[in-house]
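pls read this stuff:
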Amino acid sequence: SHPDTSTRARSTPARARTTTQTRMHSMRTAAHGAVGATSPRGAKSAARRGQPPSVRSNASSRIAFERVGAPFVASSSSRAPRMMTIARDGAGDDAPPRAQPNLNQMLVLVPPHPLLNHWLAVARNVQTPPAIFRASMAEIGRILIYEAGRDWLQTFDAQVQGPLGLANVTVVNPEKPIAVVPILRAGLTLLEESGSVLPAQQTYHLGYVRDEETLQPKLYLNKLPAKFAEDAQVLISDPMLATGGTIVAAVEEIISRGAQAKNIRIICVVACPVSLTALSERFPGLRVYAAMIDEELNEQGYIVPGLGDAGDRAFGTA
């Protein structure tokens, strides 16, 4: 055929391929910008310092990734250094055995999941817009709910008719819904995908506002049931466990209505040793699932580096 005809015949698919490649490049560029990936120079600098080029290479790793079963010591003045165990959960074949429940201790689990690391990086980035920040929080919440439910959800064995025969199956008991309690307003973000994870749930709400002078929580909304069943399983979500005032007040309110600490799970994005110590001293048997532990609190009671004000960032009111 004539060269011009050949060129015209190939032009349409070529343009389509070019358009597709351009879109994929734009998506990769946007994701790279949102995460704020380490540059080659930064990676080399980190290597010289003996650190991996990772967004998680901060001082908190000394706490978060202690050997399973190692005691947690919040500070030299901690009154109860062995009331809490921190576990790096599910770290692979070379990892120590999974920590066993101890009703005399509070267990803190920091799952080393690559997707958890990724979405935490997105949430950390100050330039992440509200919509993407909320999406990252929802993904973090989804992963933490999976982890919290692993040894917690009540199941039963059954049989179902498959296409080629009967199959033995294990099913989450729909008659035992999880009582989900977001602490407003930021706690809502971690539970946006809970309905796609938990087969049965009931949602209640607690609203607290922190006095910026005293740093003490004030309850402004309480939609808990009058009474929890003794064996009720309660999942609390609060992105930031900083001074511990709000989360301690929430757990106390829930326990005052019949729930037991051993049946309560807390999911958060970032926790500080101050809050973890406060929880462990009051609620042995509790479990906390966190994406990261940051050691520092500033004078305003915010975790550093933390996320900033998660509620403002999620709802665009910063």
Residues 3-35 form the longest helix (33 residues). DSSP finds nine helices and 14 strands in the chain. Residues 1-82 have pLDDT under 50 and may be disordered.
